[in-house]
Amino acid sequence: MIEAINPATGRHIRSYTTLSPAETHARLQRTAQAQLEWRRSPMAARAAVMTQAAAQLRERTDANARLMAQEMGKPVAQGRSEVEKCAWTCEYFAQEAPRFLAPQPIKTDAAKSYVMFEPLGVILAIMPWNFPFWQVFRAAVPALMAGNAMVLKHASNVPGCALEIEEVFRQAGLPEWVFSTFLVETAQVRSLIEHPAVKGVTLTGSTEAGRAVAAVAGAALKKSVLELGGSDPYVVLEDADLELTVEACVASRLINAGQSCIAAKRFIVVEPLCRRFEERFVERMRAQRVGNPMDEATQVGPLARADLRDQLHAQVEQSVRRGGRLLLGGRIPDEPGAFYPPTIVTDARRGLRVFDEETFGPVAAIVPAQDEEAALRLANDSPFGLGAAVFTRDVERGERLAAAHLDAGSCFVNAFVRSDPRLPFGGIKQSGYGRELGLFGIQEFVNIKTVYVK
Fold first, then answer.
1. What domains appear along the chain, each with residue ranges and CATH number?
2. Pick from 216, 81, 223: nearest CA to 148
3. Sign of the dihedral defined by the CA atoms of residues 392, 394, 399, 401, in that order
4. Could you tell me if 294 and 76 are in contact, meaning their C-beta atoms sit under 8 angstroms apart?
5. What is the Cα–Cα distance from 120 to 35, expressed in whole angstroms?
6. Contact 376/401 with Cβ under 8 angstroms?
7. Can 399 be counted among the known catalytic residues?
8. Which of 15, 131, 166, 178 has the fewest Cβ atoms surrounding its Cβ within 10 A?
């Protein structure tokens, strides 16, 4: 049984019955059969489904924003933006997938030789709760456009979102079983990965979950794509535009109550600017409105679960005990719900949990740096490598540092890191491997086949 709980109130929403192992096996068999038909469908037919899925999403925007707010605490205004981004992604791949997957002729000594892209089959998607629509659509849309089928094992606290996504695709005209939500316990994930019908697995989640999934998929010799945790550094140089920088840093740190693997987490500020940055950062973080996610004016909602809030608070407390200096927040509110205030710990360094670990919530670590060289060294001093950013008025300098000196899958200059359907997205080191979105994302779950005709 899966229980959905409202994190803003702690109240029970609804119970859902999970599938038995026998039921999951039968459904996987149906999905495998449905994929054989879907892979033969013309690209234009697949594009028509995705275009209609975008229309379905937009028709249901308000209802789905409320559903996200209810199940995991996302403010409704942010939920609407998430739904729109999913619709955009559907339209983008409907338009671009035929070009991305077109056969590519290659000159050799053959009369004809080329590379073509064929679907692998059924892809298992293991998705998190923090962006309950976006994480699924960014994985599903490219895979489906490539001719694969997808089975979704969503996070257990967003079952309503999981079933709603299945309904969006059904209403869009996707054939039955080509996309299917499986409400199953985490203990059943191993058997899903190992099932002969499953040909690949994509996971967005923690580094620990990534290791577990990679081990099972690797043993079964199945392709996997892992988008894992992050501790993104934002390098703020001495010549940065302070107002632009602070606005970007606050937006990145607090979107989705800070529950984002690609959110800014460590703010590495060169000393001549550090104290001014602290003052302005505290001012802007304090001004953010925390409250009921159903309220249109709310900017920071609750964390998704009370246990996650308590883990975050422990990271803050231990960091302060070891020498971090608390500038803002850092106290659990005396009210119902899994709320945590925007929090800033400065003088962060190696050995403090807010520097060493991913902080999944509205907690910012300010790291003073003596100069550019020290700032870059601190930025890269992390087991993670998902995103990074650099802020400077010298755009050429910023580009050089982003391109050649920051170790991450996505490096931005004078902007906060975000995903975009047109660009590949993913990390290095313990932030995972493989890519989603763009040309490189759609080619992850395909057989890149060489055809040689003498």
1. 2-228+431-453 (3.40.605.10), 232-420 (3.40.309.10)
2. 223
3. negative
4. yes
5. 10
6. yes
7. no
8. 15
- Of the residues 82, 227, 278, 357, only one is catalytic, namely 227
Q: What's the full length of the chain, in residues?
A: 454
Tens digit of each residue's pLDDT (9 = 90 or more) over 365-394:
999 999 999 999 999 999 999 999 999 999
164-190 pLDDT, tens digit each: 999 999 999 999 999 999 999 999 999
The predicted-structure confidence for 195-207, as pLDDT tens digits, reads as follows 999 999 999 999 9
What pLDDT was estimated at residue 325?
98
Please count the CA atoms within 13 angstroms of the CA of 404 that sit on its side-chain side.
7
- Amino acid (one-letter) located at 154: H
- Asked if 274 is an active-site residue, the reply is no
Side chain identity, residue 3:
E
Ordered DSSP codes for 53-93: HHHHHHHTHHHHHHHHHHHH---HHHHHHHHHHHHHHHHHH
Amino acid at 351: G
> In this structure, which amino acid lies at residue 204?
T
Report the greatest alpha carbon distance in the chain. 76
Q: Note the pTM of the prediction, 2 decimals.
A: 0.97
Q: Read off the DSSP letter of residue 357.
A: S
Nearest to 139 by CA among 61, 75, 229, 200: 200
Distances 222 to 198, 420, 436, 448 between C-alpha atoms, Å: 8, 27, 17, 15
What integer pLDDT is reported at residue 71 of this predicted model?
98
Query: Cα–chain-centroid distance for residue 333?
Result: 28
Q: Which two tokens stand for residue 273?
A: 């600017």
Q: Are 391 and 267 in contact (CB under 8 A)?
A: no
147 φ/ψ sector (left φ>0, alpha ψ -120 to 50, else beta): left
**How many other C-beta atoms are found inside a 10 Å radius of the C-beta of residue 273?**
19
Distance of CA 271 to the CA centre of its chain: 32
The alpha helices in 108-206, defined as continuous H runs, are: 134-145, 159-171, 189-194
The identity of residue 137, as a single letter, is: F
Taking residues 17-46, report their average pLDDT: 97
* 3-state percent breakdown (helix, strand, coil) of the chain, nearest 5: 45, 20, 35
Q: Indicate the helix (H) or strand (E) that contains 265.
A: strand 264-270
Pick the catalytic residue: 261, 274, 357, 436? 261
Indicate the helix (H) or strand (E) that contains 3: strand 2-5
